[in-house]
Each structure stands twice: as structure tokens, then as C-alpha cells.
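Intended use. Records like the one below are meant for learning the mapping from a protein sequence to its folded structure. Do not use them to infer anything beyond what is encoded.
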Amino acid sequence: MYALYNRREFVRPDPLEFLYRYEDPADREIVGLVASSLAYGRVLQINRSIEGVLSRMTPSPSRFIRNVSPESLGRTFSTFRHRFTTGDEMATMLLGVKNVVVKYGSLHACFSSVLERGAQTVAPALACFVEELSTGAPGCRSSLLPSPLKGSACKRLHLFLRWMVRSDDIDPGGWDNIPPSALIIPLDTHMHRVCLGLGLTRRRQANMKTALEVTNSFRKMVPDDPVRYDFILTRPGIWRNAGVDFPVDMEALTRHERKDDQ
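Structure written out for the chain above:
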């Protein structure tokens, strides 16, 4: 499946598409955080909402972040809404991004500074990264910037890290000093169901403990790249969400899990 479907032509309609528009890593990391933070709900609505944010930050999101004032951020996103995410929450998160960029130079530099050498997973560094983004910009942590310290699987943040760290036909990468071996699987309900079906976990809650267990299972197969198969295993769910048929019947992977439930 990886050989057949881990290709750029199968990305649409994934939010990852938005990152391909930007060559500058400074723009791409900001777009990645915005796109991943809104990656909940129906994928077509997700993409419309991401477009709505980026259209307010043209032509360069990084330049916009550096130049915008806190007051202007609030006005710019006052009419924005994505499901439960309000314009105030988006403006608050972007204010956190601005503070981090001013302090460290980039999101990459911030994350690198809090990642301990030899760390087995990115979880501790992610908690510090969220803390940095939330300092001076309270109010967005629980929704857009959940902390792994509270047990959340932090699916959207781990999705962001996958995009930033891995580099192949799908993931653009750029954060080259972060080892892919330390990444954690972006675990949502669909990925959890697939992993139950594959026997990669028996845990029934899609939380951080389960995400770590699933990642360890993948690490036994691919020690240096445990999230390699995230893209292909989540395609059926994303395509179904968008009303598109996927060429492989992934439901077969979870049949014994549903049978056990019955």
C-alpha cells in the first residue's frame, strides 16, 4: 500500500495540500500549524476554513505574522469560524505564533530548543512547545493547542510534526534536525479503529497512552520512521469523508475488531 498510494496524486483533498503552495520554510511551518489545528470535522469544510485563514495572510504568512499587531489580529479574524473554533481563538493562537517567532526566529528554532538530545519521543518537547505558544496568548490551549501533559493524543499537533519532520513524496519536511524516529502517530478515532483491527493496540481509548503504544508497534516494523504509514492508513477515512471512493477496502482491516465488540 505504501508503494502504491504514498504519492502526491493521492493527497487531495487533504489539508496537507496547502503546504505545497509555499517554498519558504518560514511560511510553510505557519501554514502547517494553521492547517493541522483546523483538521477536525469534514475535510471539505476543513479546507474551506484553512483557505479562509490563509486568504487573510497573503502573500506571505510569515511576513504577516511578523508585521501584524495584536489588535489587528483580533479585527482580521473577527468574522472567522470553523465549527467550535472562533475567530478570537484563531487570533490568539496566531498571537502565540508571533511571540514565538519574535523570540526564537521561527517555530522550528523554538521546537529545536526544547527537544532534548537523544529523546525517544517528541512528547516532552511538544509539551514545552505548546507552553511557549500559549505564553502571552492564553485561551487557545484547550482547543487549538492541547497539551500532551493532560493525556490528550494531540492528533493535530502530531500531524503538524509529521508534515514538518518527515520528507518524502507526501510530507514536505524541513525540520531536518528533528529525528523522524521520535515522532508519534497522529491518533484519531479512525486511525484507532484501524490499529485495533491490525492488532497494534488493545487499548479502547484514543488517548496519548494509546498513541504511544501504537507508535511502539510501528517502531518495531520501521524503527527510524514509525509514522511512515499514517498517510496511507488514513486515506480511506479522508476520502470517504469527502465522498470519494478509495481503491482499497480498508474495512477488512477492522472486521475482527467489530466482531469482538458484537
